[in-house]
Design goal:
By secondary structure, this protein is α/β, with parallel strands linked by helices. The chain has one domain. Helices cover 55% and strands 11% of the residues. Helix 4 packs across helix 5 and helix 7 crosses helix 8. The longest helix is centred in the middle third of the chain and has 16 residues. InterPro entries: DUF488-N3a (IPR054495). This is DUF488 family protein. It comes from Halorientalis brevis.
């Protein structure tokens, strides 16, 4: 298989932990289920094959978004709305992209995941946010797919 063929057949997907736990998504037996959580609780480790915390948002960003999320909920917003509004107000997109660009550990892990996908492994990124909440794993998917098609 040529490099271009490997890139075209590479599979990188994403989901969230509850979808795996409740079997709402199907994951191939030979897929690599990769957590991308900065602060994984103990139960999360049983949900994934490995966790790569270097791909999780930086601690300070997580703390800021969480605090703003709680503030917005106290003001009467629903959980989902508060989460998404906090994401915007804290400039999550730009700050997370900066983290990925500036972190050699994150860059190395992204390269590792691309290599795995090019080698035929389906890579499934997992964190906590459900379908209707903004999540960094969507940004990771974009980055990984861009690298595959570069």
């Amino acid at each position: 298989m040529t490099t271009d063929e490997a890139r075209n057949s590479a599979a990188i997907r994403e989901t969230y932990a509850a979808a795996l736990q409740h079997e709402l998504v199907e994951v191939e037996d030979d897929a690599s289920v990769v957590g991308v959580v900065r602060r994984p609780p103990g139960w999360f480790r049983a949900t994934v094959d490995e966790n790569r915390p270097e791909l999780g948002p930086p601690e300070q960003l997580l703390d800021e978004v969480k605090q703003r999320h709680e503030d917005l909920k106290m003001q009467g917003m629903c959980d989902e709305g508060a989460h998404n509004a906090a994401w915007e107000e804290c400039d999550f997109d730009e700050r997370y992209r900066d983290h990925l660009a500036d972190s050699s550990a994150a860059q190395e892990t992204l390269d590792d995941l691309v290599t795995a996908a090019e080698g035929g492994t389906t890579v499934v990124l997992v964190c906590f946010e459900g379908e209707n909440k903004r999540c960094h794993r969507h940004m990771l998917i974009e980055e990984l797919r861009a690298r595959l098609h570069a």
